[in-house]
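Re: [ENG-882] Designed sequences occasionally contain unexpected residues at chain ends

Forwarding the minimal case from QA. Structure tokens:
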């Protein structure tokens, strides 16, 4: 693949890099970013690497009024021998295009944008942290930039990729978190945009998330919009339940995000011979399994959240405590194997990693 950016404008000063020990999630950004523009007349043009800087947009830009936008979340990892690895990056660009399709936005050339991203990562390679649990989070996003207040898809867009060195998404690292099942609000409805990675799905969660945080919970668990019965997602993650030796995760139904970590977990479990099923699963069923002593492990999966064990679930005033608030055996094995593959510490039997060079 020979696609190259047309221009690299270097930042006139370079920021001081944070210590790996102080890294949280998503507050520090690197020196450069990737930008590309689209218009109906030209298609995607002028891929370039520029200093990390504010974007100037017309106040009438469609993104500000109708939220026409899509984003991705991916990570670059530093190996012990100083190589930089991406994890299944082609899946992120496929999903970006699926989101664009749902939101009437133009598709990108997946292979080309991956090449541009690699060039950005080469410029920013010193920003990829090396301590355990750290990585360089990659946030590609597309925004609708046409100045037009009529209710129609924009004819102009900007793709931007920014980079942020990160540690753990949750304050307490891989310690099991407490989750409240949300009974009033819903995240996404069937036929809506739930399966797309778009801003509106996420800001729709803030009020429930704030309320749950005030009550001492880290995240909320979302139920389906129709019946408030079936489990959909947890906060920014997909969710898995290990019940009597079998792992269950909600099936993709159009309102659940098709997570790449979710897919990887399913594939790892299958390759280990652990039964895993994707199906509708009700919250009532989960509580019943717990009553019967069959609920063994619960965990969330996501690029930011990696594999995050869940130690407590609250629903209709009832609380269940999972695996004595300890990390389950399968959860730990998934975490170790996934992060081991991502950082090159464990052989990658699935060919998931892609080296940046
Ligand atoms: C990710 O896991 O990459 C996400 O996009 C989650 C983000 C909303 C914090």
């Amino acid at each position: 693949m020979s696609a190259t950016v047309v221009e690299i404008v270097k930042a006139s000063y370079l920021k001081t890099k944070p210590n790996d020990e102080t890294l949280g999630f998503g507050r520090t950004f690197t020196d450069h970013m990737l930008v590309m523009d689209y218009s109906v007349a030209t298609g995607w043009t002028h891929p370039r690497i520029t200093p990390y800087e504010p974007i100037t947009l017309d106040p009438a830009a469609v993104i500000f009024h109708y939220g026409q936008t899509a984003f991705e979340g991916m990570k670059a990892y530093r190996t012990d021998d100083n190589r930089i690895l991406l994890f299944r990056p082609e899946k992120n660009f496929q999903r970006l295009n699926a989101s664009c399709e749902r939101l009437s936005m133009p598709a990108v050339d997946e292979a080309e944008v991956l090449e541009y991203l690699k060039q950005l990562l080469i410029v920013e390679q010193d920003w990829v942290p090396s301590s355990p649990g750290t990585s360089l989070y990659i946030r590609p996003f597309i925004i609708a930039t046409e100045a037009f207040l009529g209710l129609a898809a924009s004819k102009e867009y900007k793709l931007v990729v920014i980079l942020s060195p990160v540690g753990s998404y949750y304050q307490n690292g891989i310690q099991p978190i407490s989750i409240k099942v949300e009974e009033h609000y819903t995240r996404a409805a069937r036929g809506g945009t739930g399966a797309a990675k778009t801003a509106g799905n996420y800001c729709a969660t803030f009020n429930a998330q704030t309320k749950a945080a005030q009550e001492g919970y880290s995240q909320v668990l979302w139920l389906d919009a129709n019946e408030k019965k079936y489990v959909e997602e947890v906060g920014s993650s997909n969710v898995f339940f290990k019940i009597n030796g079998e792992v269950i995760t909600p099936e993709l139904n159009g309102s659940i995000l098709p997570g790449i970590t979710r897919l990887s977990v399913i594939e790892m479990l299958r390759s280990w011979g652990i039964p895993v099923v994707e199906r509708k699963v009700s919250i009532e069923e989960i509580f019943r399994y717990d009553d019967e002593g069959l609920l063994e492990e619960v965990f969330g999966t996501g690029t930011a959240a990696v594999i995050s064990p869940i130690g407590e679930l609250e629903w209709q005033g009832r609380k269940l405590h999972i695996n004595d608030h300890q990390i389950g055996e399968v959860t730990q094995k998934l975490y170790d194997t996934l992060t081991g593959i991502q950082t090159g510490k464990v052989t990658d039997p699935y060919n998931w990693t892609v080296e940046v060079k």
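QA comment: On inspection the terminal residues look reasonable. The chain has a mean pLDDT of 96. Proposing we downgrade this to a documentation issue.
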